[in-house]
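Minutes, structural biology subgroup

Action item carried over from last meeting: produce the C-alpha cell record for Transcriptional regulator, TetR family (Williamsia serinedens). EB confirmed the sequence was re-checked against the source entry. Recorded below for completeness.
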Amino acid sequence: MDAAIELLVRTGYDRLTMEGVAAEAGVGKATVYRRWAGKADLVIDAMATLKPVSGTIDTGSLDDDIEQMAAVSCSPQSQRLIEVMASVCSALSREPDLLEAFRTRFTEPRIARLTEILERARRRGELDAGVDVAIAASLLPSLMLHRALTTGRPAGRDYAEQIVTTVLRPVLGLPARPSAPHPKDTDD
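Output recorded by EB:
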C-alpha cells in the first residue's frame, strides 16, 4: 500500500503500473496480482488506508465543529490523501470503477460529515432554514482538493480557515471574520 501511494504521488495514476508497485515494494508482481485484479482495485485500497479517522464532530457549536473539521482536513494523513486524490483525478472520466469508489468512499463521506454538522447547527438555531446545506457542505472539501489540483500543493490550515471565514461563513449567512494564522502552517 505504501509503495502504491508513493508511486501515485510521484508519477500519477496514468503512469502507475502493477509491476512498478511490485518493484517499489520489493516483491514479485505475482504477489501484487494475487491480491488485486488490477490497478484501480489497488489504488482504491491504498487510498482507503489514508482515510482519516474522524468520528462524529459535535461540540455543540457550529464554529467549533467547523474548526475541528478543518483541523481534521489538514492533518498529515488527510493532506497525503488529498495528494493521492489529485493524482487520480485525470483518470476518473476513463475509469468508472475508480470514479465510483472515489465518490462513495472519499468525497461523499466528507460532504456527509459536513452536512451533518450543518444540519445540527440548523436544529440548534445557528443557521437559517433557507441556507443551502448541500452546497455549503461541499465547499471545504471541494476547494481543498481544487487547491491541490491547481497548485500541486496540499492546502494547509491557513487556507482551510480562509475558506471557512471568507467563503463558507457568508454562504451560511454568517459574517466573514478574519482568522489568525497558525505559526506552523506555511502552506497557506
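Discussion: The chain has nine helices and no strands.
Next step: EB to file the record with the rest of the batch.
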